Amino acid sequence: MIATARRRRTGLVLAGMIVVFVVAVVLSLGVGARPIAPATVLEALLSPDRSDPDHTVVLTQRLPRTVIAIVAGAALAVAGTVMQGLTRNPLADPGLLGVNAGASVAVLAAITLLGITTPSGFVWFAFGGAAIAAVVVAAIGGRGPDGSNPARLALTGAAVTAGLGAVTMLILTTNTVALDVYRYWSVGGLTARGLDAVAIVLIPILIGLVLSLTSARGLDLVALGEDTATGLGHNVARTRVVGILATVLLCGGATAIAGPIVFLGLLVPHALRAVVGGEYGRLLVVGIPAGASVLLLADVAGRVIALPGEVQAGIVVAFIGAPVLISLVLRRTEVSL
């Protein structure tokens, strides 16, 4: 009975999140400094007229940022869920592996050494830097007799992040050109990127999503404790490797196209536990539309709260995520995995 009730509740939550996602997509395509009716948006998508300014806005500006929000939001939410499972810490963040810090240093290297100044040019550098940093953290954190300890991975990630952060500050304080270009990318935004950037990271992100879903059962067992999981015949090391690889692909791809957006990967899985429970299969499936919806709605809010200008989606997520997360923590004295 309990299992049936949980499945029914998860199905209802998933259906609700899909509805929210559809509404968020419609708002993302139609809301902004230039409001566009849903009928016009649909016409622009199905039979575009390049001479119509509304169609041009939809196709060249709002469609790319909508797709980026969907891909990056879903990727960060799933990556956050996996990281929380690997570390057995419901407040763990995808940035724990040094992903954001690695991407930042790589972007700065592209600016200062190669003269790249466009966000679309940063994609491969951000993705590569994020991946290298995560691999270094995983390699160092996994060494030694206690390499399987989640706390060791967290401490290693914090140390690498601090070191890369120092490198970032050194470059920014000595190179004004790098500062001017980097500060826009670093706040986490969806503008000035095209669908070509999404195409570069889409396959890695899809692979990361598949790996995450296949590791759900292993994460459930790891949540019981590594000794217990091993006693049940589960290969904990394999789950850890698959989970870290999935996180690298998801976070690296999302950071490359949207910048270092914080809080989303922490907030979404933590909030979903309150409604669907702690089983990772459910958290991952529901987290995909939930993460995409959060980033879409944050981007829409950023367009309308400071007209005629805009507030970047990463800033909106941080402003909304912090108080919401605090309220969740205060309402629940204990978070169960």
From TrEMBL:
The keyword Transmembrane helix applies. Keywords: Cell membrane, Membrane, Transmembrane, Transmembrane helix, Transport. PANTHER family: FE(3+) DICITRATE TRANSPORT SYSTEM PERMEASE PROTEIN FECC-RELATED, FERRIC ENTEROBACTIN TRANSPORT SYSTEM PERMEASE PROTEIN. The keyword Transmembrane helix applies. Belongs to the binding-protein-dependent transport system permease family. FecCD subfamily. GO terms for molecular function: transmembrane transporter activity. It is found in: Cell membrane. It comes from the Bacteria. Gene3D superfamilies: ABC transporter involved in vitamin B12 uptake, BtuC. It is a multi-pass membrane protein. GO terms for biological process: siderophore-iron import into cell. CDD domains: TM_ABC_iron-siderophores_like (cd06550). The chain crosses the membrane at residues 12-33, 63-83, 95-116, 122-141, 153-172, 192-211, 241-268, 280-301, 313-330. GO terms for cellular component: plasma membrane. This is Iron chelate uptake ABC transporter family permease subunit. It holds the Pfam family FecCD.
